[in-house]
Design brief:
There is one protein chain. The chain is an alpha/beta fold. It has a single domain, classed as Rossmann fold (3-Layer(aba) Sandwich), CATH 3.40.50. β1, α2 and β2 form a beta-alpha-beta unit.
Length: about 180
C-alpha cells in the first residue's frame, strides 16, 4: 500500500518537473552541450564501448559531453571510479519516494544541456525518471511504453537492432535537422 502511494506521488512530481521545460530544437552544428545516459552492464561490454566511442566522436566534433552511467546494482564497484565527464550512479541513489536522487544525479539533471541522449534499447524506469527530471532542451531516446511522452524525438527500433544502430540513427537524425 505504501509503495503504491509513493509511486503515485513520484509520478505526479516527475510529470510536474517535465512540464516546466521549454523544448528548443537546434541543428547539430549549433548543439554545444550534450548529456549522455547509458547503463553499465558487465555482460554487455560492447554496448559500453559503443557509448564511449560515441561520446568521443561527439567530442571530436566540438561538443561538450557529460555522461551519466547507471550501474544496475545497489552499489557501484570501486573499479568504476568517476572519470572526466563520466559519472556513475547506482540503484541505491534514490529519494524516499523512489525518485533517482544524489548529488551527482541532481547536478546532471539541473544542467540545461542542448541535447540529452538516453542510450538504452530496453525500457528502464530509473533512466526514465532521470530523463523526466532533466532540464535538457531536447531529449532523444528509444520509443518504449515506459517512456511515453518523455522524449522530444523518439527512435523506433526493431527487436534485432542493437545499441550501435541506435547511436547511428540518433546521429543521422540530428544531422538531418535544419533550423533557421
Amino acid at each position: 500500500m505504501i509503495d503504491k502511494i509513493k509511486s503515485k506521488l513520484a509520478s505526479k512530481k516527475l510529470k510536474e518537473l517535465n512540464q516546466n521545460r521549454q523544448v528548443v530544437l537546434k541543428s547539430f552544428n549549433n548543439i554545444q552541450t550534450i548529456g549522455l545516459i547509458y547503463v553499465h552492464e558487465e555482460e554487455k561490454t560492447e554496448d559500453i564501448r559503443q557509448c564511449r566511442l560515441f561520446a568521443d566522436s561527439l567530442k571530436q566534433q566540438g561538443k561538450q559531453v557529460r555522461s551519466l552511467v547507471l550501474v544496475p546494482a545497489k552499489t557501484t564497484p570501486e573499479k568504476l571510479q568517476a572519470k572526466l565527464n563520466i559519472d556513475y550512479v547506482n540503484l541505491s541513489d534514490r529519494s524516499k519516494l523512489g525518485i533517482p536522487s544524489s548529488y551527482v544525479i541532481d547536478s546532471f539533471v539541473s544542467e540545461a544541456f542542448d541535447l540529452l541522449i538516453v542510450a538504452s534499447i530496453k525500457g528502464n524506469d530509473y533512466l526514465s525518471m532521470i530523463n523526466l527530471q532533466s532540464k535538457a532542451k531536447l531529449k532523444i531516446g528509444v520509443e518504449h511504453r515506459s517512456h511515453l511522452n518523455s522524449f522530444d524525438l523518439q527512435i523506433i527500433l526493431n527487436e534485432e537492432n542493437n545499441l550501435r544502430y541506435l547511436l547511428e540513427q540518433i546521429e543521422f537524425y540530428l544531422k538531418a535537422i535544419k533550423t533557421a
